[in-house]
Amino acid sequence: MWALGLTLVVYVVITFTLTHTLDQETLAGSTAPIFDAVQVPWMKLVVQVVAALACLGALLGLMAGLGRTCLAMARDSRHFTFFAHVSERHSTPARAEILFCVLAITLVFSVDVTQAVGFSSTGVLLYYAIANLAAFTQDREHRMYPRALQVLGVVLCVAIGFTVSLPGLLLGAGAAVVIAGVALVSNRRGRS
């Protein structure tokens, strides 16, 4: 909760600063508003370096999360056991993480960056919508928060999903349908 609260404060400060530094037209048309708001030339370089480091940090977190999710799914599957391997040296799901790194690199080099970001955002929103739906099914003794919070989470995920660029949204939705289909077929074959 402290991390979430601190993030909220940072967002509020940045929003306040940008709305008081740039006029509405410049802010609305900007693809890099923080960079545009900086007036000192050497500070523009600092903003670029910090932005690159933040992207790498986000990518590292994403790769670790996706790798663990893929590992858990592979352990429950009869068909994707190749990704259930854990590196003895680093105790990480290296094969799954390499898969997602290759996918991320392929996306960056083959698709427009806005579509790649939209695809990634759609995936994250879908992931959290499913997590909220799963939490909604918990019984009272295992529940930490009221069900209304999970409903709000799903509604917000869907609402934010409509702010994603249309090509990225369609690409993400299409990938989700394909993954759901593969999981369904794999699950049915596993039962028979």
Automatic annotation (TrEMBL):
Q: Which residues form a coiled coil?
A: none
Residue ranges spanning the membrane: these are 45-71, 92-111, 170-187
How is this protein situated with respect to the membrane?
Answer: Multi-pass membrane protein
Q: In which domain of life is the source organism classified?
A: Bacteria
**Which InterPro entries does the UniProt entry name for this protein?**
AA/rel_permease1, APC_superfamily
Q: Which Pfam families match?
A: AA_permease_2 (PF13520)
Swiss-Prot/TrEMBL keywords: Cell membrane, Membrane, Transmembrane, Transmembrane helix
Write out the annotated subcellular location: Cell membrane
Give the Gene3D superfamilies listed for this entry: Amino acid/polyamine transporter I
Q: What is this protein called?
A: Amino acid transporter
